[in-house]
Design a protein that fits this description.
Layout (H helix, E strand, L loop, with lengths): L5 E10 L4 E3 H5 L6 H8 L3 E3 L7 H16 L8 E5 L10 H9 L5 E5 L5 H14 L5 E9 L9 H4 L4 E11 L4 E9 L7 E2 L7 H5 L10 E2 L1 H22 L9 E4 L4 H11 L10 H4 L6 H11 L8 E8 L3 E8 L3
Parallel strand pairs: 4-5, 4-6, 11-12
Antiparallel strand pairs: 1-7, 2-3, 6-7, 8-13, 9-10, 12-13
Bound molecules: acetyl coenzyme *A.
Acetyl coenzyme *A binds next to helix 2, helix 6 and helix 8.
Length: 331
């Protein structure tokens, strides 16, 4: 009889650039203050990638650590899914650059763009491909260089974002742990509240941005804030219902790190104390799709997670996209 199996996270890794950009540094660049940023967002500092360093270097460093943590050979990886909205190139994809750098010679590779929800989207793909038997060991690497996509003269956005990479190896697990359920969604209708033009932009897009800054992030912060506060709790409730699980059975929620007030609002709606909501915003800022795998890696290395712990991963982002996953920790 075939054993029942699931797809589980069997290894994690993360990487950051060396240089930090503090709120005090930003005070010298734009009309803002450490007090405003700390109070309104919870962010104190973020990492900033050197202009000469490709993002793929960070992504590969996080990937190598995840493969090592998983205790498998890099040749055993048969698929790499990279998630990013700030790739070095559209072609080759970030996933192909990582494949080359880490020597994953047996892996297919492609990128996913679901903005900050990228990791949760990739997790559902990985789950489907493993449970169906199509792939055995999938590396998800989520890496972002958002400081390359902001206008450092725009205080509405430049104080929020940072750079970093997080990775996870997803493989077949046969001990009852693993990804229980994933719930994804998108509201394309609201896409215009957060935009980064690429090869095309409208007059309206250009009018919202500074001179010569056609390809930077523009965001209606308060629209995103309202959406995020609601969707983080709604998506969490949906995934709990789908998995027939109660919030009290969840050890930690790992939310996308955008603003501490969004996390507090969601926690309040869910009736969960902030001690059970993981946050590293203070030191990383918003690193988009990299934030959840980085948080998981931190928590795992701090020995906060035990095998079988039930976790919720929940994110929202540009698109607009959202998603949540219920995971029983496999390491
Ligand atoms: N420093 C000082 N003052 C500022 C700054 C700043 N960095 N930014 C804005 N202000 C000012 C505004 O100009 C405004 O001044 P006014 O009252 O004189 O007009 C005042 O502060 C209040 O502005 P609000 O926009 O109302 O501030 P709010 O409390 O809503 O915070 C913020 C703004 C932090 C952007 C918040 O709305 C937010 O976090 N939104 C969600 C953003 C988010 O999560 N984005 C990520 C999406 S994920 C992805 O896919 C990339």
């Amino acid at each position: 009889m075939t054993k029942h199996f699931k797809a589980g996270i069997i290894g994690t890794g993360s990487a950051f650039p060396e240089k930090k950009l503090t709120n005090f540094d930003l005070e010298k660049m734009v009309e803002t203050s450490d007090e405003w940023i700390s109070k309104r967002t919870g962010i104190k500092e973020r990492f900033i990638i050197d202009e000469n360093m490709p993002l793929s270097v960070l992504a590969s460093e996080a990937s190598k650590k995840a493969v090592e943590d998983a205790g498998i050979n890099v040749e055993d990886i048969d698929l790499i899914i990279a998630t990013t909205i700030t790739p070095d190139y559209l072609s080759p994809s970030l996933a192909c650059c990582v494949q080359k750098d880490i020597g994953a010679i047996n892996a297919a590779a492609f990128d996913v763009n679901a903005a900050c929800t990228g990791f949760v989207y990739a997790l559902q793909m990985a789950q489907g491909l493993i449970v169906s038997g199509i792939h055995k060991n999938i590396l998800i690497v989520s890496a972002e260089a958002l400081t390359r996509a902001v206008d450092f003269k725009d205080r509405n956005t430049c104080v929020l974002f940072g750079d970093g990479a997080g990775a996870a190896v997803i493989s077949r697990v046969e001990d009852g742990t693993g990804i229980e359920s994933v719930h994804l969604g998108a509201i394309g209708e609201m896409g215009s509240v957060l935009t980064i033009p690429c090869f095309y932009s409208t007059e309206e897009d250009r009018s919202k941005r500074g001179e010569g800054m056609d390809r930077v992030i523009w965001m209606d912060g308060s629209e995103v804030f309202v959406f995020a506060s609601r969707i983080m709790s709604d998506a969490t409730i949906s995934i709990l219902e789908k998995a027939n699980t109660h919030i009290d059975d969840i050890k930690y929620i790992f939310p996308h790190q955008a603003n501490i007030r969004i996390l507090q609002n969601a926690a309040k709606r869910l009736g969960v104390p902030m001690e059970r909501v993981y946050s590293n915003l203070e030191t990383t800022g918003n690193i988009s799709s990299a934030s959840i795998p980085v948080c998981l890696d931190e928590a795992s290395k701090k020995k906060m997670l035990q095998k079988g712990d039930k976790l919720i991963l929940v994110a929202f982002g540009g698109g607009l996209t959202y998603g949540a996953s219920l995971v029983s920790w496999s390491k």
